[in-house]
Amino acid sequence: SSRRRHTRFRNVTGVQTCALPISAVIATTWPSGCKAIDKADWSPLAGRKVILWPDNDDVGRQAMARIGEKLLAMPGTTIKVVANPPDAPDAWDIADATWTPQEAAEYARANTKTVEAVMTVRGIAAPIDPPDPPSIEDTTPIDPPPIKPAEGGYFTCLGFDADGYYYQPRSTGQVVRLGGGSHTSTNLVRLAPLPYWETLYPSKREGVNWTWAASKLFEQQAAVGVYSPDRIRGRGAWIDAGRTVLHMGDRLIVDGDTHPITRTFKSAFLYQRSAALNGPADAQPLTVQEAQVICELAERFHWEVPASGTLLAGWVALAPICGALRWRPHVWLTAAAGSGKSAILDRYVAPLLGDMGLHVAGNTSEAGLRQTLRADALPVVFDEAESNEKPDQQRMQSILGLARVASSESHAHLLKGSPAGDVTRFTIRSMFMMSSIATALKQGADKSRFAQLTLRNPTELPKERRTAHWEALDHDLDRYITEEIGRRLHARTTAMISTIRTSVAVFSKAAAERFDSQRLGDQYGTLLAGAWALMADQPATPQEARTLIAQNDWEPYSQTTEVPDERRCIQRILQHQVRVEADDRICTRTMGELVEIATRHRIDREVEPREAMDAMNRHGLKVDQDAQLLIVSNTAEALAVILRDTPWANSWATMLTRLPGATKTGTIRFSGAGTVSRAVALQIADL
Predict the structure, then answer these.
(1) Could you give the CA distance from residue 636 to residue 675 in angstroms, rounded to a whole number?
(2) How far is CA 493 from CA 166, 298, 320, 531, in A?
(3) Cβ contacts of residue 404 below 8 Å, gap of 6+?
(4) Collapsing DSSP states into helix, strand and coil, what is residue 153?
(5) Long-range contacts, 491-494 (Cβ 8 Å, 24+)
(6) pLDDT of the residue at 200
(7) What is the spatial distance between Cα 489 and Cα 497, in angstroms, rounded to a whole number?
(8) What Cα–Cα distance (Å) separates residue 609 from each residue in 92, 148, 617?
(9) Which pLDDT belongs to residue 44?
(10) Is pLDDT of 448 > 50?
């Protein structure tokens, strides 16, 4: 013990001898306390078997850890450490024990651990105290051992990146970034209390040698390496080396076992402390009979496509565990006023998600979502996601870009810079539910990632029938959809994560066969696997998956296959409307219609083939009637105007060469446009 109270010891020639009935055991200590460890002569212990019994506090354990390293450096010396009783109060030591000698000996034999390399206390690697700093007269530098990134210590060194050094204090559980010039006393005591620094890096006069402490921290961070933010995991569900981890902000639920987030947890990832969530709390999981009611209620809303109810139930079941999924499908709820859209969000989705979802509305921006989510794997419910004005359209397209990245479990990151030159990386793992009167889905990549759930117009039903329907549905929503049911649903799906992932693979394969598209298979197969988790306790078999798919009409959803960029580019050109001017009339036709008129595949009483050819030439297009080719200029200004604000505004020539049968031509004159340029020839039959 580092203390000087030894009520059960008798002093023999200056050496404290233990009265415990362990053969040839001598109890000893050193003079002047923990700060004088380096002033003691430890050589008499060389080659001996030494048992260390620390005081039950950090100072005592640090002292024994440092002594242990000194003794291990002596040839032939073996070290053992006695672990204090788990219920011992702070600062307890052997002198405070009320054991008999026999009881003390039995405890020591049963709780002693051999140390062979780095000194450990309680089986956890501990930082080693450095010696006192050298005096002015001492010309031999004394270099203290580095602070180790010890689990169970006050903080962990996570590494560096440029001028930033990253730490995770055990007290807060959050990652702290300190600049090179910010390792001051105020900031370092955020990592560990003052006595820690006073013990490790005492100043010759008094207090702490903070420069010395910062120097050792820089050395340790350099040894750890470059900091990787990919290791940080926020709130939500995760798969970690085969384990199911539910991060609730202040605690982790690992395979059903709950413990504080500050408790040591061996993992390649860092679970950062955040605001606490209730999640499942201690609720009992829903039974399959109770869970089926959730699916049945979703189907009772008036949908244009009946399968939409099943998809909604699947989304609600999966959303709280979206971080544990390989594919995260999104849904877009659309409806006219008075159709029940608000009832779905407020009476069905919100209670079932509870605090496991992020609910936003109105003018929420992509940056706001990204910075709020950070490393969290939580679903996003976005109400009033309208795109009426141009600024709203741009804002929604940015949010859809965020959702697009969140869909798949890839190694891609969102990188955002700051005016100061710092780069922040984001990895979004959310499932999105958008709600509006009309969708803002334009790109095929977005359409294949969002299932559109559309409610029927209320005017399609007689008023009496509509009123009776909502009265019955209101009653059942109040009865079966509550926050308590939501917590029990979370408990069910969390316990079934492994089962759900198995079902996802089965449904995705069956859906891919049905839709003839792997992307749509991932999208709808995952949602159906979520719905299946409300219908059964076991993973779905291939036959069960095919049967559930066959029970619904999927035709409206099978038309959302992503269209290649080259096909969308030529469609944009052919669908563009132009004015056709003749001697006595002016009319409007699409480019596609002009192609059909020019090739005489279409008879138009107002537009002659020659007039169609002239209008096309003015826009950088012409037709080879003999070869049945549409020739598109590579540089026509009119085409640049048509494709303005599209991804192909400056690259349409490259895109069009990807179409089947496309060939590059030499220079061709487009008389109406007054230019000569190279072009791309396309087979009209393939357009």
Answers:
(1) 8
(2) 35, 17, 8, 11
(3) 445, 446, 449
(4) coil
(5) 491/280, 491/283, 491/284, 491/285, 491/286, 492/285, 492/286, 492/291, 492/533, 493/317, 493/318, 493/320, 493/321, 493/530, 493/533, 494/237, 494/244, 494/246, 494/253, 494/279, 494/280, 494/320, 494/321
(6) 82
(7) 12
(8) 101, 82, 12
(9) 87
(10) yes
Q: Give the Cβ contact number of residue 279 at 10 Å.
A: 24
Mean per-residue pLDDT for 136-148?
35
φ/ψ of 245, rounded to 5, equals -120, 125
pTM listed for this prediction: 0.67
H-assigned helices in 577-636: 591-598, 609-618
DSSP state at residue 421: S
DSSP lists the bridge partners of residue 271 as: 233
Residue with tokens 């979370």: 490
| Interval 93-131: pLDDT, tens | 888 888 888 888 888 888 887 765 444 333 333 433 333
Using an 8 Å Cβ cutoff, are 678 and 684 in contact? no
State the number of CA atoms in the 13 A half-sphere of 410 facing the CB.
8
Distance CA 64, CA 37 (A): 10
Q: Pull the structure tokens for residue 192.
A: 């560990």
The residue to which tokens 């109810």 are assigned:
309
Amino acid letter, residue 632 = V
Q: For residue 376, give every residue at least 6 positions away whose Cβ sits within 8 Å of its Cβ, in sequence order, or none.
A: 234, 235, 236, 274, 358, 430
Q: Are β-strands 432-436 and 380-383 bridged in parallel, bridged antiparallel, or unpaired?
A: parallel
Report d(CA 308, CA 531) in Å as an integer. Answer: 11
Q: How far is CA 415 from the centre of its chain?
A: 14
3-state secondary structure of 103: helix
Query: What's the token pair of residue 477?
Result: 């929503």
CA 545 to chain centre: 29
Angular region, 579: left φ>0, alpha ψ -120 to 50, beta rest: beta
Contacts of 307 (CB under 8 A, 6+ apart): 552, 553, 554, 557
Residue 525 confidence (pLDDT) above 50: yes
Tokens standing for residue 681: 């020839």
- Closest to 132 in 3D by CA, of 198, 73, 191: 198
Helix (H) or strand (E) holding 342: helix 341-343
Distance CA 571, CA 591 (A): 10
Q: Two tokens at 392? A: 């709203």
Structure tokens at 350: 């919100």
**Beta-sheet strands, E only, within 241-355:** 243-247, 251-254, 257-260, 270-271, 330-334
* List of long-range contacts for 190-193, beta carbons under 8 Å, 24+ apart: 191/154, 191/155, 191/167, 192/154, 192/155, 193/154
Compute the half-sphere exposure of residue 255: CA atoms within 13 Å on the CB side of its CA. 5
Count CB-CB contacts under 10 A for residue 179: 11
* 405 touches 419 (CB < 8 A): no
Measured between alpha carbons, how far is 446 from 474 in angstroms, rounded to an integer?
A: 33
pLDDT at 457 over 70: yes
Rounded to whole angstroms, the Cα distance separating 509 from 517 reads 10
Burial classification of residue 409, based on how many CB atoms lie within 10 Å of its CB (0-12 exposed, 13-18 middle, 19 or more buried)? middle
In angstroms, rounded to a whole number, what is the distance separating the alpha carbons of residues 140 and 116? 29
Higher pLDDT, 623 or 57: 623
The encoded tokens of residue 170 equal 């055990």
pLDDT digits 0-9 by tens, 221-240: 999 999 988 888 999 999 99
Residue count of the chain:
687
